[in-house]
Amino acid sequence: MAEFPQLRLRRLRQTESMRALVRETRVQVEQLIYPLFVVEGKGIKKGISSMPGIHHFSPDRLSKEVEEIARLKIPAVILFGIPERKDETGSASCAPKGVVQQAIRVIKKAVPELLVVTDVCLCEYTSHGHCGVIAGTDVDNDRTLPLLAKMALSHVEAGADMVAPSDMMDGRVKAIRETLDAKGFPNIPIMSYAAKYASAFYGPFREAAESTPQFGDRRSYQMDPPNVREALREVEQDINEGADIIMVKPALAYLDVIRKVRDTFNHPLAAYNVSGEYSMLKAAAQKGWLEEQRVVMESLTAIKRAGADIIITYHAKDVAKWLRG
Ligand code: PBG
């Protein structure tokens, strides 16, 4: 084994081409998913104040946006819908002319090859803001399952390519798989938010999606942040129920969880670089405290290095532009 002075690790760091040659991890646009927030109405493209650069779109304003996304070679979007009317059971979530269902049709017409993933969760649709139906003071797991399955089915019937349940009910992947199979959609994959933590980093999203719980919090269904062994059990459960892609969320404060899941399972692994992670970097960049491009690329590289294949990120459009040079 060579030792200093024969061994000099700095030899391979001298130029950018040399560094690129030995680079171990790369962020690639082919594995990014860009979130879109869709609201009911016409002619709406309105900025979300807590998430600079991110907008609410009405379905009719989506074509231009997704054409740009496709031009940037981003392969997929994930849709979040904000309905006009909310009720106890989130019934707008499976309306054939619901906001997400409309959006899917517009996007598939404008750019057929763009993969449309939909978030499956009731919190944007319920008057109380919880991810399922309420019994007493808590979310009723088993009564929520058929509603999630119905919502997923209506997205797929509208043309969605993949569904992503984010509610954290036990048994939801199985319920969705059974429904999709029974209704003639055995080839639609499920990307499950398998290890989703009760995180304060969702703050800006809840403003964007108008989904802040009106009472209590999500700690009886989302995971407790200190736990990593439990994340492996969650992932295992979702895999056994038929998940095709598994997800860890959030990403940056949970890199150890991503690594552990990567080392334990062979399924494709996604990480959600969530709203709070985005807004922190945006705010610091706006103040001139951090160099945006470098901190964003460093963060996404860390998520990849931890073991994620796919990254869901609000930075996707910027990253695609930077990678093109
Ligand atoms: C829906 C959902 C949430 C996010 C994705 N799907 C919010 C939540 O669970 O409160 C968060 C995404 C983000 O913060 O960017 N349940």
Task: Summarize the helices and strands and which ones pair or pack.
Blueprint: H1 16-21, E1 32-39, E2 45-47, E3 55-57, H2 62-71, E4 76-82, H3 99-110, E5 115-120, E6 134-135, E7 138-139, H4 141-158, E8 162-165, H5 172-182, E9 191-196, H6 203-208, H7 229-241, E10 245-249, H8 255-264, E11 269-273, H9 275-286, H10 292-306, E12 310-313, H11 316-324
Helix pairs in contact: 2-3, 3-4, 4-5, 8-10
Bound molecules: ligand PBG.
Provide an overview of this structure.
This protein is an alpha/beta fold and 325 residues long. It has a single domain, classed as Aldolase class I (TIM Barrel), CATH 3.20.20. Helix content is 38%, strand content 17%. It is built from 11 helices and 12 strands. Strands 1, 2, 3, 4, 5, 8, 9, 10, 11 and 12 form a 10-stranded mixed sheet that branches. The radius of gyration is 20 Å and the shape is globular. The model has no long low-confidence stretch (mean pLDDT 97). Bound molecules: ligand PBG. Ligand PBG binds at residues 119, 121, 123, 131, 166, 202, 205-206, 211, 274-275.
